[in-house]
């Protein structure tokens, strides 16, 4: 089995190195091959998603990505910015289903900004559609404003759209995921205002006919954003479009105290996938050896579970992470008094040791 390792920018190389260490310690014969992506891709090959990197990602059975982005690339034109690598990989590999679990480890209950009783035991799964919506809709750009009080001025515009088949396939993923959990699905939309999301609601309702054992609720995005901080444990699985999912998943991540703990999977129709931490490249702490590698290590576990069919190895990693947390080891982002502060490498080493 071939795994493409794309470390990327900022803390990306440091945290991916720890995940690679863990993968190599499992005793499996994975073939790991690395390539530059994001700002690193631009620096080495003049493009955030170099052809060789894309070819490697396509040829591999799974992709493990660190993070992309750095202040120093902010002035590049949009098509050359590091973020384009992520968007390009999603589009080129057809990674339409983004799974972002938000789990609060009991040991980290104090790290949340919410009261422990609101978040303790939190275990929700956000499923974000990843290749449609206003992110990829066309036309888009800057044009002359055709009418209204600003007619004749320049206006920026994007197109929000979802094809029926796009909604159906993400709805199936969500209902099936709910089936494996507590059989409750909340579909999040803005059907009261947007045509796209009234259509979304209608299609999700139709797909629900095939999953009568799952309880379906529809909720507007603004209400969902509020309910997520008011009573997040009322949710089980949430499904939503690309942009709402982008925003809600950051909110959900923060419920758990540290975005440094949360993995994610982006899957295609065959469950081939790209795995990456939910957090960004944190250029402010890059190279300091203090970034939390656990989200990336847990992403490697998701990869073993969903794409590589190695659920037992995934369990080993998940358990090892729980073990190091129970041992009181903490990177600075999750540090509390009475625990032991460790760096990125020490954390990676501790997980390897805890694999048993
Ligand atoms: C994410 C990120 C990306 C997104 C950016 C980097 C393009 O915020 O994965 O959530 O908006 O999808
Ligand atoms: Mn985001």
UniProtKB/TrEMBL annotation:
<feature type="site" description="Important for catalysis">
    <location>
        <position position="190"/>
    </location>
</feature>
<dbReference type="InterPro" id="IPR024084">
    <property type="entry name" value="IsoPropMal-DH-like_dom"/>
</dbReference>
<feature type="domain" description="Isopropylmalate dehydrogenase-like">
    <location>
        <begin position="2"/>
        <end position="351"/>
    </location>
</feature>
<feature type="binding site">
    <location>
        <position position="90"/>
    </location>
    <ligand>
        <name>substrate</name>
    </ligand>
</feature>
<keyword id="KW-0464">Manganese</keyword>
<feature type="binding site">
    <location>
        <position position="222"/>
    </location>
    <ligand>
        <name>substrate</name>
    </ligand>
</feature>
<dbReference type="InterPro" id="IPR004429">
    <property type="entry name" value="Isopropylmalate_DH"/>
</dbReference>
<feature type="binding site">
    <location>
        <position position="100"/>
    </location>
    <ligand>
        <name>substrate</name>
    </ligand>
</feature>
<comment type="pathway">
    <text>Amino-acid biosynthesis; L-leucine biosynthesis; L-leucine from 3-methyl-2-oxobutanoate: step 3/4.</text>
</comment>
<feature type="binding site">
    <location>
        <position position="246"/>
    </location>
    <ligand>
        <name>Mg(2+)</name>
    </ligand>
</feature>
<feature type="site" description="Important for catalysis">
    <location>
        <position position="135"/>
    </location>
</feature>
<feature type="binding site">
    <location>
        <position position="222"/>
    </location>
    <ligand>
        <name>Mg(2+)</name>
    </ligand>
</feature>
<keyword id="KW-0479">Metal-binding</keyword>
<keyword id="KW-0963">Cytoplasm</keyword>
<keyword id="KW-0520">NAD</keyword>
<feature type="binding site">
    <location>
        <position position="128"/>
    </location>
    <ligand>
        <name>substrate</name>
    </ligand>
</feature>
<comment type="function">
    <text>Catalyzes the oxidation of 3-carboxy-2-hydroxy-4-methylpentanoate (3-isopropylmalate) to 3-carboxy-4-methyl-2-oxopentanoate. The product decarboxylates to 4-methyl-2 oxopentanoate.</text>
</comment>
<comment type="subunit">
    <text>Homodimer.</text>
</comment>
<keyword id="KW-0100">Branched-chain amino acid biosynthesis</keyword>
<keyword id="KW-0432">Leucine biosynthesis</keyword>
<protein>
    <recommendedName>
        <fullName>3-isopropylmalate dehydrogenase</fullName>
        <ecNumber>1.1.1.85</ecNumber>
    </recommendedName>
</protein>
<feature type="binding site">
    <location>
        <position position="250"/>
    </location>
    <ligand>
        <name>Mg(2+)</name>
    </ligand>
</feature>
<dbReference type="GO" id="GO:0003862">
    <property type="term" value="F:3-isopropylmalate dehydrogenase activity"/>
</dbReference>
<dbReference type="Pfam" id="PF00180">
    <property type="entry name" value="Iso_dh"/>
</dbReference>
<feature type="binding site">
    <location>
        <begin position="280"/>
        <end position="292"/>
    </location>
    <ligand>
        <name>NAD(+)</name>
    </ligand>
</feature>
<keyword id="KW-0028">Amino-acid biosynthesis</keyword>
<comment type="similarity">
    <text>Belongs to the isocitrate and isopropylmalate dehydrogenases family. LeuB type 1 subfamily.</text>
</comment>
<keyword id="KW-0560">Oxidoreductase</keyword>
<dbReference type="InterPro" id="IPR019818">
    <property type="entry name" value="IsoCit/isopropylmalate_DH_CS"/>
</dbReference>
<keyword id="KW-0460">Magnesium</keyword>
């Amino acid at each position: 089995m071939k795994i493409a390792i794309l470390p990327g920018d900022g803390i990306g190389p440091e945290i991916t190195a720890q995940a690679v260490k863990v993968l190599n310690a499992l005793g499996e014969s994975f073939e790991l091959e690395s390539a530059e992506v994001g700002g690193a891709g631009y620096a080495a090959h003049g493009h955030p998603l170099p052809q060789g990197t894309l070819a490697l990602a396509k040829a591999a059975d799974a992709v493990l990505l660190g993070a992309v982005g750095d202040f120093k690339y902010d002035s590049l034109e949009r098509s050359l910015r590091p973020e384009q690598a992520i968007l390009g990989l999603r589009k080129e590999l057809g990674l339409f289903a983004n799974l972002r679990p938000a789990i609060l480890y009991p040991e980290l209950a104090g790290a949340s900004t919410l009261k422990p009783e609101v978040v303790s035991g939190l275990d929700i799964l956000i499923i974000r559609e990843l290749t449609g919506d206003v992110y990829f809709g066309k036309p888009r750009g800057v044009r002359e404003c055709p009418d209204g009080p600003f007619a004749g001025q320049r206006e920026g515009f994007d197109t929000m759209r979802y094809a029926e088949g796009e909604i159906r396939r993400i709805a199936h993923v969500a209902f099936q995921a709910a089936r494996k959990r507590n059989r409750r699905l909340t579909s999040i939309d803005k059907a009261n205002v947007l045509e796209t999301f009234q259509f979304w609601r209608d299609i999700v309702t139709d797909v629900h006919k095939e999953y009568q054992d799952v309880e379906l609720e529809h909720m507007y995005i603004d209400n969902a954003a509020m309910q997520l901080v008011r009573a997040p444990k009322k949710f089980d699985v949430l499904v939503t479009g690309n942009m709402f999912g982008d925003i809600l998943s950051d909110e959900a991540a923060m419920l758990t105290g540290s975005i440094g703990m949360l993995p994610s999977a982006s899957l295609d129709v065959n469950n081939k996938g790209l795995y990456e931490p939910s957090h960004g490249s944190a250029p402010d702490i890059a190279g300091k050896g203090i970034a939390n590698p656990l989200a990336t290590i847990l992403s490697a576990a998701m990869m073993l579970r969903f794409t590589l069919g190695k659920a037992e190895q995934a369990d080993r990693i998940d358990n090892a992470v729980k073990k190091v947390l129970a041992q009181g080891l903490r990177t600075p982002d999750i540090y509390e008094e009475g625990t032991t502060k460790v760096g990125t490498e020490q954390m990676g080493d501790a997980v390897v040791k805890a694999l048993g």
